[in-house]
Amino acid sequence: MEQAIEILFTASFWVAAIRIASPLIFATMGELICERAGVLNLGIEGIMTVGAFAGWFTVYSGGDLWTGVLIAALAGAMFGLLHATLTVPLGLSQHVVGIGITLLATSLTYFTYRLALPQVTTPPKIEPFQPLPIPGLSKIPILGEALFSQTPLTYLAFATVAIVAWVLYRTPIGLAVRAAGENPSAVEAQGISVTGIRMGAVMVGSALMAVGGAFLTMSAFNSFFFEMINGRGWICIALVVFGSWRPGKALLGAILFAAFDAYQVRLQQISGGVVPYQVFLMMPYALSILALILVARRATYPKALMIPYQKGER
Amino acid sequence: MAEKLDLHLNKSCKRGRRALPQQPHPAASPPPSPQGGGEAAAPVLRLSGITKRFGPLVANNGISFDLKRGEVIALLGENGAGKTTLMNILFGHYVADEGTVEVFGKQLPAGDPRAALDAGVGMVHQHFTLAENMTVLENIALGTQSAWKLRLDRAAARKRISKLAGDFGLAVNPDATVSTLSVGERQRVEILKALYRDARILILDEPTAVLTPAEADALFRTLKLLVAQGLSIIFISHKLHEVMAVSDRVLVLRSGKLAGEQVTAETSRAELASLMVGQEVASPKVAEPKIGAVALELKSVSAAGQGSSHRLDGLSLELRAGEITGLAGVSGNGQATLAALIAGVLKPASGEVVVQGASMRDWSPRAALGGGVARIPEDRHAVGTIGDMSVTENVIAERYATARFSRRGFLDWKAAKNFAEEIIRDYDVKCPSPDARIRLLSGGNMQKLILGRALDPDPAVILANQPTRGLDVGAVAFVHRRLLEARERGAAILLISEDLEEVLALSDRILVMSKGRLSSPSRRGERTIRELGELMAGHGEGMAA
């Protein structure tokens, strides 16, 4: 029991929690942008897979790490464009299109992987992003170590939250995005194209999701293997709800979930095999559901979420 | 100061501002002479030959007119006459099939709200176009500053809003979230939105439909100020007295066509009304009632308040066959609770409801319908119909499970469609087809369908809750006639209405509801409007204990 509590005061636990949170932060911000504009993007799981592969493969083929991130983002944006074209101007069901994008993107990625590396049995490794301790700050016990001895991509994740929050709440374009998710006719009545805003938001959001995926192959691990996204996309959709569609709260949610995840791994080690390990694996998800129930009951969701807007319709 | 601010905004807004000067035409100099004069003044707006079709329905048919500077035009017409469609074409929400729109002599590109805004056209929609999760300021500033700016200039926006608000009597807190505002305040925000963009032509679509009389008066005062500044206004309405009060000129639309044009000072309400419906409107002739047995009885019923409506405490009421019982009162005094109770939606805490001699046991809308209670719900959009389902599906919605419309658990679409076609024919419903989604219908046509559904086959009790709210003259007369016919056939009718004139015109017996209690009844003509008004306010004698 004492051991279980001691875990919370070790730096390695918090370092792991922040690392696990990073891809979730990127993808959650991506989903949040889409939903704030009124589009539920269930393609997230597949788009993260695409990003994971595209980033890793760019580096594997000789590109540098940041080029990999950029290529991942572009690949994500392309799938975002496909999603947006189907759901926004054509107004198709966002659920069906999203699931379809996930299936398409995932299979296409695996297919491309096999085409590119037909003979490989063990996934080839790349040289991933290395931790970049911030001088001074990373010496602060526990908190400093956890936050400031991470890879550059984690710092970028945190910066993304600040940028997304700023853009949504402080800029004219953020205003239009929020209005598009709340009442698209308000956007049109002010002379702005709802279609343009929504498509743009889905593309930018999808790019962020793909960078979230790329974090896994380029920072957390150093190679690409099948099934590596492993439901993280779906968690991000829950995190958006948990965060009541607000970037700051969603960030807290991502860290909370990641902490549960890091904690269960350590708990497994000290439990000595009495409890089946699956119970621990389940824990973060069970706690997330509990947190969702407690927090999200009063959440005010974007009113036009999942409602296609078609101009000139009565 | 104001000019400085304008300059500042101009700079900060790369593509948003219109190129037009504040005084667009030298010829259009004050004083504005709206009454037929002003030949020299070029029109600020010219619509030529606008035609718009929705499938087989022709919503606008070759409509042309001019609007002059400083003029208020009223666009009058029944629901579904095509007023809103026409304005939506002008504003660029819809693309016209034929015809052109010219603003200040320049043709507007079709289907581009931005171009309309930039040309100085502002529109206050009937259903407000506000994002409720955002503040007043954010809603107004939306789309007025360059999208690529890294920071929304709130200070400049706030200054300009408070100046406009002060100049035109449109008080509103710029930092309030829209969801917390009253309907009247929201409308002020909509007007501010247009003024903020230097609108020179303001279109108001049924602006008073949602306002209290005091709010409407404030709106009219604002409109006067705007006209004094040289703005031109198009005022859409189907309320004759408002049209007479605010407009210089009246255009009457009927079934998508321009049916007439009158200078307000030279016309009368009666003339406009007949232009609107295409015939003389006669007030219903009411025969002596043939009062029969008690059809519905409430015996000291108590029930919790429904929504914002007052609760009922030991209320007793008798409805007799062949009689219309009018229930007047300010809304929120328990009418909604009473209606929910009779419709079987709400179960009373105590007391008894007896329908045609049988005490109600099973509290559900279906049981109430089965017992012979037909209802015309207060809110036809939210409760009366399911907008995205077809006309046919809506007319059988209350009774799809009965033997008439289903057999062995399968729907009989043929019978359903026949029923829908029957109502469309008998009630003169204008709709493209029985398969059309019901939300495409105008309010009046929707209400006719609901009426047709409720009155077939002859119900013993009819609960008519605000049956003519928001309807135009022709539709109101139609609904009244049908209700009176049902009374002739021996139905017991409870008419709940906030429109005192309606209650007085139709009811054989009038009750006033106040704070969940009923006044003593009065026969037709026994109490004056004044006396009823006092009862509605909760004082006056005759409130039953």
TrEMBL record, chain A:
Keyword Cytoplasm set for record: no
Protein name: ABC transporter permease
Subcellular location: Cell membrane
Keyword Kinase: no
Pfam families hit by this protein: BPD_transp_2
Entry keyword set: Cell membrane, Membrane, Transmembrane, Transmembrane helix
TM segment ranges: 6-27, 39-59, 65-84, 96-113, 153-169, 199-218, 279-296
